[in-house]
Amino acid sequence: MAAIENIPQGEAARIDHVAALTVQQLDRRYASGPRCLRGVHPKDHGCVEALFAVSDSLPPELRVGIFAKPGDQFAAAIRFSNASPLVTPDSLEPGADGKPAVAHGSRGMAIKLYGVSGDRLMPGDHERTQDFLMINQPVFAFANVEDYEALSKIIVDFKEDPRPFFARVASPDKAISGRAKRTLQIVQQVKALAAPPSFQPPPMSPFDNRYFSAAPFLFGEGKVMKFSAVPVNPMTGDVSAACQDPNYLRAALRKRMEEAQGKPICFDFQVQVRSADSLAGKVDTDIEDVCTLWDEAQYPFVTVARITVPSAQDVASPARQEFCETLVYTPWHGLKEHRPLGGINRLRQKVYTASSERRGCPASPEIPPQDVQALLGGGAPARPDRGGLRGTPSPSGGLRR
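-> structure tokens emitted (401 positions)
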């Protein structure tokens, strides 16, 4: 079997440096409290309970890991968010009058499945969960650990201003300048300032975007995947009026659920699978560089599960909002069959841990699948022995579970 990763020399030290810089960023952002938020995706639009049902008729080659048993069902908690490292208005582009005009931007959809059995990725991980983290664009903006380290240092040195990163476009090192040019194009497409235009139109609600893993993962022995969540019946329309509200996506999520009148809102969960042998000579581009898009014509996405979100649930309750804030997501919560691949995923293991520990949430509440519906609805009693809703203030200002 062909190699599926190529770890650059010195990468571990770079990752340690990024983790330290991340804590510095959080210390500065939240020095005055009252609590420390996530290093990225700090602004949520809401958390919903859902059912994740593996397709009944999967062919044998797709029966891997979570998808090993056709018809399996998992309770899930889904968090929708903005990808920005700061809590900012949902609309990124100002209109002629200085008010928000178009709601372009990078968004997130993070899924946590409960009651997952199998060999865990991380020693000591007792969550029995599988996390799938996605953004609403098929590639990440920063290719590898080296670039992300440069960005993190600039954010610290220039007090949250990432623009000096693009001085790398003029670097005499062609590899660095080439990656910086691609990053600039991707950022422009996120903001709809480039040709081709943005990756997706501004969504009517968080339920109306398609989301992607962007980074690669194992898909059992000898195969790799990327994954995606595709809305089944997305709503389309003009959001220019709605996005005058700086929190329009939170309002839109709640409105969409109310207008569903009890009918569920659904996504198809899809995987884009290729053999490890197809990566021969391409590991540096197709695995280690997360700005690289896999050709869907050559490696099509295939539906392997259906996500069903009951619309009759209270996403605005204090209990739900508190639960949402204390959830911890990482691509390293999961099964060995779906091990994260590539430098950015190796970076995420340490950096996400540093972020969650700094905000006082080293792990998510341990919720048995049969308790998810009641707990997410705010109806379950606090059970600190099983990770219930009750928490105690931590020195970092978060809630320790």
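Confidence is low (pLDDT under 50) at residues 378-401.
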